[in-house]
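Hello, quick one for you while I still have it in my head. I'm working through a protein record and want to make sense of it properly. Would you mind checking whether the tokens look sensible for this chain? I owe you a coffee for this, so here goes:
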Amino acid sequence: MEKLRTLESFCEQYGMLRNQKKTKLMVINGQKEDRLPIELTGSAIGHITHYVYLGAYFTEDGKMASMMKHQLEACRKHVNKFAAFVQKNSNMPFAFKHKVLTAALSASMLYSCESWLTDNTSGVNKLYMATMTMLLSIEIGIPELKSTLLKRQGAFLRKFRQKSAGDEPLAHALNLVQREGMGQRLTDAAETDGDPELASLESIRSQCRQKAADGATRYQTYLEMNPDLCVHSI
């Protein structure tokens, strides 16, 4: 309260106004009475269970699953728009559809994914697979999102550790979670060799070739149409 009073006094002294829409109260491990509105001069700071800062969601329960849930709920409207776009432009070349997916949907779906230090990504993977099905009109042979998340998280962690002096708040936070459940996820991401996405795609290609060799006509047709099993430039 003392800090809030100081802020209020500073604003009054210099003729500034506090942004009431963005000034909220979030309580972690508190009691019911701790969540009551804070009354200030002519306004009140209300309680919220989650807050959006620079596009990333923060929740008062501190759970990664809650944070990801809010982000996916906000992303669903973009998925619906992409579904309508694909249906309306069914004859548009794949390359253009893919650009729309990458620019308008994947960016919002995977925003701040570097902080998703959890193996429980089934919700975002399900949404991602649904959008890929819309794009490709197939339901099998699509690489899951795990390799993409691992690649992004690994790149971020390695870059941060190279530049970090070790005394930043994030460095202290990473050291703390290293001893908790996220520790193995941090190790897996930071020590990933090569490109997980390319490795995942190569695994799918190998499976396709093996099934074609075993006599599966669908996969034999895939190989006849696209022997390299890759996306060709247009």
